């Protein structure tokens, strides 16, 4: 077999295998990593494709060689979410989604720092949290985020609730990756 064509077919097979594996995570991604800016996953990102395709292309590809493929990226991300469940941390500290209740930024940051062991990055718009980042080193240990949250967020912030999603059959469990797979 011609090597050029053999490599092409190997590459296409690997891509199909990865797509199949990632598709097995869609229910879990819909439940735990939804797009809060669109209500139908097939039309996310302005109809250009799934929200997660953007996440992989923008963020996941930068994780190479630590994380080798899309499936590993998403399963690792989900596992980190469950391990450092900021939603639970904030809820237990009394910070729950609300468009009207204002919370002290310092208290929110402090609750996350105490639970995770590193400073988060919060991105706000009009006093509402739009994004909350936990930063990790290459060995997937939490590290302080470089940018200071106070630069985009006021002293008191709100946590708007999620947009209702059209979703069925969400998976409630994710199997953790073995060390061989990461």
From TrEMBL:
InterPro entries: RNase_T2-like (IPR001568), RNase_T2-like_sf (IPR036430), RNase_T2_His_AS_2 (IPR033130). Signal peptide: none annotated. Pfam families: Ribonuclease_T2 (PF00445). GO terms for molecular function: ribonuclease T2 activity; RNA binding. It comes from the Eukaryota. Belongs to the RNase T2 family. This is Ribonuclease 2-like isoform X2. The lineage of its organism: Eukaryota, Viridiplantae, Streptophyta, Embryophyta, Tracheophyta. The gene is LOC104586826.
